[in-house]
Structure formats: C-alpha cells, structure tokens
Amino acid sequence: MFARPLFSATFRQAARPMAHGALKPTPFRPAFQQRLLSDLTRQAIEKAVSSAPVVLFMKGTPETPQCGFSRASIQILGLQGVDPKKFAAFNVLEDAELRSGIKEFSDWPTIPQLYLNKEFVGGCDILVSMHQDGSLAKLLEEKGVLAPLDGSESKE
Asked: pTM for this one?
C-alpha cells in the first residue's frame, strides 16, 4: 500500500532531469517517450493524411466501427454530408505501428482522429463539440468537402 506512492515519487524524480533536456515534453507524453516515430511510419501517415481531403483514423471501418467514439465520428460526418468521394478512413486496429504512430504524429492521445486538407482537427470530443456549435458545418463547407445537394447541379 505504501510502495505505490513511494514508487510514483521516485519515478517522477527520476524523470525530472529528462524533462529539462533537448526534448520538450507535451502535456500527454513525458520527454522519454518523444520522437519514437520512425521515418517510414511518419511517411506512411503523411501519405495517408494526403490521400483524401477528409481522413479519419478510426477503430474499425466506416461500415463496422469497433468503438463507440469511432461510430459517433462516422455518424457526425454522415450527418454533416461529407462527400464519400472526398473521404478516406484508416483502421488503426489492423496495424499496431499505425495505431501508436498516429497518436505521436498528431500529438493527440486518442483515436479517432480527423484530418481536413492535411490539417489535424481533433478527436471525437472535438467533433461532437464542433457539430453542436455549428462550427464543423461551416468548416466542412469552407473546405469544399460536402456532397452536392440533390438537384443542385441541374440549377440554371
């Protein structure tokens, strides 16, 4: 019972000198966990992020999400009217390196993660908040990633 607080204090003390080194820690990761992303993984993630205007890294697929947050993100994008032709999803459960690498790439600790035109937007909590306040609809419209409305092309 007393070993746990002692261990935690010892660990924090041992980690402290590293935090003041060349690598600056983030709120989510201490310094000794920084820069573990290989160049090959970074290039693969950059290629994936560039593959479509709207990219979602999720658990499962859009048809069969494997987590409630991924399901909610897909539902929000569907409700917003994102054009399926401008959308790509990547299942992080298929590749452990992608699953850990995407968190380091974005410096965001959770999955799903949404990118618009190669820019990180956020996770499910951010999407829900933006959906509720209307800023997601505005952003998607500005980026030109919404599906055309029925009959909008035949307007004269």
From this structure: 0.73
